[in-house]
Amino acid sequence: MAAIKITGTGKASRPANYTEITVTVKRTAKTCAEAVEKTDGRVCELFRLIEEKGFGKDALKTTDFGVSAEYENERKDGEYIRKFIGFSCREGLKLCFPFTAQALSAAVSVLCGEGAEEQVSIAFTVEQSEALKSEALEKAYADALSQANTLARASGKKLGKLLTINSGGAEGVPYSATAVVPAALSARSVSVAPEDVGLTVSVTAEWELE
Fold first, then answer.
1. For the chain, which ranges sit under pLDDT 50?
2. Which residues, in sequence order, are CB contacts of 203 under 8 Å at separation 6+?
3. Where would a tag sit more exposed on the chain, N or C end, judged by fewer CB atoms within 10 A?
């Protein structure tokens, strides 16, 4: 049985309309209990401050939580030895909301304001990412089909039954290429217009040749 296998590509883009801010709260103390207490105290404070900014009581979500022993290298008698310095408690948080410059500024003023010690990263995406993926996949399949029909006609054949189809590049959440330094936004009012969120996927399909 003769067959033809073709890979097509599809591209789609949408304006970035959704913001994802990830935050890492980490505190270190001599005891495990004290480290947990310090971290929890800061997290509770962030929950309160974010709610006061109008994001809603449950807007800030915990993504991970852990406690670990902390060591540092100390030079003694010409050698380095590991010295126990305490315990660290780490809690990861995520804040997601529809993108507006005002909302972004409000969130950053809390998370990166005066005295804040947290690691913060900002990313822009689309709220309906599945629709973006579907559009790109449809275009990729159409591209593969068009190529297959062209090659089949050139060889004096025509396409028959679709045998296999596989896609690539559509996994995960697509993000805008725009990179933002959170501390810069907290320093003063800054206008931010994220680049569109683009996605390129592939579809490999195989048909019988008749």
1. none
2. 7, 8, 9, 10, 137, 140, 141, 143, 144, 165, 166, 167, 168
3. N
